[in-house]
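Hi W., the S-adenosyl-L-homocysteine complex you wanted:
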Amino acid sequence: MRKYEDTYQHKGLRKKLVDLLKEKGITDEKVLDAINNIPRHYFLDSAFDKIAYEDRAFPIAADQTISQPYTVAYQTQLLQVRKNDKVLEIGTGSVYQSTVLAEMGAWVYTIERQKKLYDLQKEYFFRSRYPNIKFFFGDGFEGLPTFAPFDKIIITAAAPFIPPKLVQQLKTGGLMVIPVDEGENQRMLRLTKQADGTVTEEAFEEFSFVPMLTGKNRN
Ligand code: SAH
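Structure:
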């Protein structure tokens, strides 16, 4: 069994990471507080312990990645998370982004298509601290019709297009933050659902995500 320890050194490095995110333009105090409160090194292999607070993505199981802290902060800030928001996340991965949302008081529904990663959530060390995260094995393009509508939807993989079923599952006035493919990189978009079912679109910075793929992978 791995021993999880959040030392003063970890806390100090985390504080520095938060300062860096501020310098890079993150202003939402609730996002910064959440990142300051969550031991990111717990979400990585212990081999990354010393570098877990660098502002970079790292490999996790099933050839996937834990997003760069700046990317997590950026997407979360765009999502304007409020306490008790019902949030659908596509791409559970390491559960780090889900934990940031849960720490901010959201009810999180997170979907992962890689069985190997979905199964890891059974060992999720914060289960009792964040009972507001619900895990699903499935294809994010389908969303979760049974639990719709959602106040907010966040996609943490590179979407080839805006999935229509996810737009349907968004509340009127709800927000979707989604990186959409644009050649090499993805453009971060924020969509706002209108009363007539259409969306308005705002475009932000470019990022680089692992691809959003269709179907489930049971291996
Ligand atoms: N939010 C994660 C980021 C993981 S990377 C974190 O904080 O660590 C993106 C994840 O999206 C990968 O785990 C990948 O398997 C998953 N993914 C890709 N396409 C998907 C889809 N259609 N449905 C659900 N998950 C998907």
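The helical segments are 8-23, 29-37, 69-79, 96-103, 115-120, 164-168.

W.
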